[in-house]
Amino acid sequence: APRNNRRNPRLRVTGRGWLSAQMHVPFRLASALDQALHTAAATAGLDTTQFRPDVRPADPRNGDFQANGMLGYAKSRKQNPRALAEKLVATLPAEVAASYAIAVAGPGFINFTVRPATLQAWLQTFTTREALTAGAATGAAQAGQTWIVDYSSPNTAKQMHVGHLRSAVIGEAACRLLSFCGARVIRDNHIGDWGTQFGKLIWAYKRQLQADALAREPLEEFERLYKVGNNAADADPAVLEEARQELVKLQSGDADNLAVWKHINEVSLAAFQEIYDQLGIRFDVTLGESFYNDKVEAVYRGLTDCGLAEVSQGALVVFHDEHPRFSRTAERPQPFLVRKSDGAANYASTDLATIRYRVENFHANGALYVVDKRQGDHFEQLFLTAEKWFAKNGWSLPHLEHVDFGTVLGENGKPLKTRSGDNIKLKDLLNEAIERALRLVNEKSAELPEAERQSIARIVGVGSVQYADLSQNRSSDYVFSWDKMISLDGNTAAYLLYAVARLHSIFRKLETTPGAGEAAAAALETPTEIALARKLVKFADAVQAATDQLRPHFLCGYLYELAGEFSAFYNADKVAVDDPAIRARRLQLCARTLLILETGLNLLALRTLQRM
Ligand code: ARG
């Protein structure tokens, strides 16, 4: 049987046994095309300091990619864009013409349609998860860089509620996308583990802690204790004073209080981890606010010495006079408060210290803050302050970005709450998702054993919540709807997981495995085969768009379209045909669809299923 030449992957046995030297196929066809056009532009006599090919995915009716750059270039030079485009196309190297059907269209766009042989060569190059990963990292902007992703980051001693969902889910997808594109990613849980609430909490902990409740539901017990402390302090000024003393003792390093505080935080983190496990999250470091306690002095000194910070009404503040709201001449000046008037550190001081630490300790090229967009002002002021502080000291500033997101709304258009108006606990939300998914699985797959139905329900239930969140543009609010999210119809997790399971079942039924016997595959032929292959190669563009803009919904939209393209192919073209070469090429398409769907869903932190 024909075999691919392992030592020289460019030399392959293709089709019905012809030996041919194949072109090198890049993962990101669009970037390679952009490069080729840019190089050709010099030969065609264009000014390459000005000309940007601007290759992007095209409307499929026009081709696969479109170069739009000629219009602007020719216009600024008062030349005919069509004529220039023709000239540029004529200078493209032979292998580009061999790989694409090229047409100059409209006022001067250049359309490229990938030829079936090139599509298939791509499919034969990127055959495994490892190959895809290597391809995605080659030439990616993030490759080799160190990125800190600051996400989830809840406050301790409290349960996570629905408001904590988005940061965790979007943050994890961002981590996976970045590391797929070759970045070294450091997942940092910047927990809120230090604050004035600990005075009342420690006061009540010492008097009213219930060991059994702590063992059962630790975060509920801490919430109850905080309420006990708070109510007692409200009712009795002597208690308020005692609670204050507990806080002072904690802040000055009293061993007992530190031990209580440490216990509260450890128990909180262990409880958070149960939710993280469900969402596929493991942090590399958990450096919360308390970690920076001994690093804020240097921030006050540094900002004061370089003249950025000043004392105003007893507090240390930074004004940004170029900014309409943060300037001292604003109608209601809103400076960045970096030390409170009682001398205490705050959110801003620890965040400034954190930036320094991330640069010095991790050599970060970038830091992402996956935080609710309602904290936009804080991050705007933080980044402005850091920029100036670093510039004054001649330090190089990492890329700082607030990866913001909107609110999860109920069907009434208001932030999602329980019927009685309380916050919905994240734990309850995930449990309800699993229960609802189980109902769906029981209905559709009653024949599967009970234990398997349960484990399917966990993957479908949690995945549905993750996917419903990720498939929306993160900057917008979205309406949480159980019926839409746990459904086999539409752009949902269940639909995609079902597509994956169906692909596995195709291989099971034909008693073969993905990737086997592909060397015998004949050239792509039918319109549905070619349409599916054209979609498969665009995985690269979807990953790039999702990573560069940190918007996972681009990947979700792509996976949904891919699943649709697969269905069209599967309905039109029978896989189990007698002709072994046709069967092999169709199985190759099935195998690659499966690989890309599973890889894509894993990048979103969803788990996939063999059957459901
Ligand atoms: N603990 C904060 C909150 O619950 C989020 C922290 C986000 N990260 C940061 N470096 N500020 O709102």
Describe this entry's structure for a reader:
The protein is of the alpha/beta class and 612 residues long. It contains 23 helices and 15 strands. It is 52% helix and 11% strand. It starts with 10 loop residues before the first strand and ends in a 9-residue tail after the last helix. The relative contact order is 0.10. The protein binds arginine. Arginine binds next to helix 14 and strand 12.
Main beta-sheet strand count, sense and barrel state: 4 strands, antiparallel
Q: Low-confidence runs (pLDDT<50, min 5 residues)?
A: 1-21
> Radius of gyration, Cα only, in angstroms?
29 Å
Outline, from the CA principal axes?
globular
Strand tally, please?
Answer: 15
Q: Compute the separation of the termini in Å.
A: 36 Å
The DSSP helix count reads 23
The helix-and-strand class reads alpha/beta
Ligands:
arginine
Fraction in beta strands: 5-15%
For the biggest β-sheet, the strand order reads 3-4-6-5
Give the % helix: 40-55%
- For the residues shown, what is the average pLDDT? 95
Which secondary structure elements does this structure contain, and how are they paired or packed?
Layout: E1 11-14, E2 18-21, H1 29-43, E3 55-57, E4 65-67, H2 69-76, H3 81-90, H4 94-99, E5 100-105, E6 109-114, H5 116-125, H6 129-137, E7 146-150, H7 165-180, E8 184-188, H8 197-208, H9 211-216, H10 218-235, H11 237-251, H12 255-278, H13 296-305, E9 309-312, E10 315-318, E11 336-339, H14 347-362, E12 366-372, H15 376-393, E13 399-405, E14 408-409, H16 426-444, H17 450-470, E15 478-479, H18 482-485, H19 493-509, H20 527-537, H21 539-548, H22 553-572, H23 580-603
Parallel strand pairs: 7-8, 7-12, 12-13, 14-15
Antiparallel strand pairs: 1-2, 3-4, 4-6, 5-6, 9-10, 10-11
Helix pairs in contact: 2-3, 5-20, 8-10, 8-11, 10-11, 11-12, 13-14, 14-15, 16-17, 19-23, 20-22, 20-23, 21-22, 22-23
The protein binds arginine.
Residues 150, 153-155, 190, 192, 351, 354, 369, 371 line the site of arginine (ARG).
